[in-house]
Amino acid sequence: MDEALIEKIKNGNDHAFRLLVEKYRNVVFYAVYGVLRNEKDAEDAAQEVFMKIYTSLPRYEKQGFKTWVTRIAVNHAIDIKRKKVRRKEDQQVEYEEFHAEPAASVELQVLKKEQQQELRKRIEELPENYQRVVRGFYIQEKSFQELAEEENVLPKSIEVKLYRARQWMKKHWKEDDFS
């Protein structure tokens, strides 16, 4: 049944997509709610997931639709949660900078800029196959999904590459190098 709906959707049948949304609405909602733990956020995320599903359908390869949908939902929820954490951290830094004494604020900015330059220089020391994923994830703040699409691989491949890059850094860099 799903395969027939998917074919109709690929051929431009909007009603078939509505049927698919109805069928998988709860699956998607509970998948994102399980990560986000907030009903309003989960509702918004579920809508975004269905947009992703719609645009990704041409790449679906009949490997189990419910599993595929759930994976998209969970990955999207994780991306949202990660962005929220980063936003919260950024707001905390902005708050601290705003409430710091003017002289201290300038000093902090100079130190932060020096640390960023040192980090960029150190990233160049990484093996070439790790540099792009480290830059993309940590500096450009891209999700596993975005990086995977850029490199035309699965998000799990990006996750593994990032894990290996971290292991390489732990082995070759000392924490003192950055202080």
Automatic annotation (TrEMBL):
<dbReference type="GO" id="GO:0006352">
    <property type="term" value="P:DNA-templated transcription initiation"/>
</dbReference>
<dbReference type="GO" id="GO:0003677">
    <property type="term" value="F:DNA binding"/>
</dbReference>
<dbReference type="InterPro" id="IPR013325">
    <property type="entry name" value="RNA_pol_sigma_r2"/>
</dbReference>
<dbReference type="InterPro" id="IPR039425">
    <property type="entry name" value="RNA_pol_sigma-70-like"/>
</dbReference>
<dbReference type="InterPro" id="IPR036388">
    <property type="entry name" value="WH-like_DNA-bd_sf"/>
</dbReference>
<dbReference type="Pfam" id="PF08281">
    <property type="entry name" value="Sigma70_r4_2"/>
</dbReference>
<keyword id="KW-0804">Transcription</keyword>
<keyword id="KW-0731">Sigma factor</keyword>
<comment type="similarity">
    <text>Belongs to the sigma-70 factor family. ECF subfamily.</text>
</comment>
<protein>
    <submittedName>
        <fullName>ECF subfamily RNA polymerase sigma-24 subunit</fullName>
    </submittedName>
</protein>
<dbReference type="InterPro" id="IPR013249">
    <property type="entry name" value="RNA_pol_sigma70_r4_t2"/>
</dbReference>
<feature type="domain" description="RNA polymerase sigma factor 70 region 4 type 2">
    <location>
        <begin position="117"/>
        <end position="169"/>
    </location>
</feature>
<dbReference type="Pfam" id="PF04542">
    <property type="entry name" value="Sigma70_r2"/>
</dbReference>
<feature type="domain" description="RNA polymerase sigma-70 region 2">
    <location>
        <begin position="20"/>
        <end position="86"/>
    </location>
</feature>
<dbReference type="InterPro" id="IPR014284">
    <property type="entry name" value="RNA_pol_sigma-70_dom"/>
</dbReference>
<dbReference type="InterPro" id="IPR007627">
    <property type="entry name" value="RNA_pol_sigma70_r2"/>
</dbReference>
<dbReference type="GO" id="GO:0016987">
    <property type="term" value="F:sigma factor activity"/>
</dbReference>
<dbReference type="InterPro" id="IPR013324">
    <property type="entry name" value="RNA_pol_sigma_r3/r4-like"/>
</dbReference>
<keyword id="KW-0805">Transcription regulation</keyword>
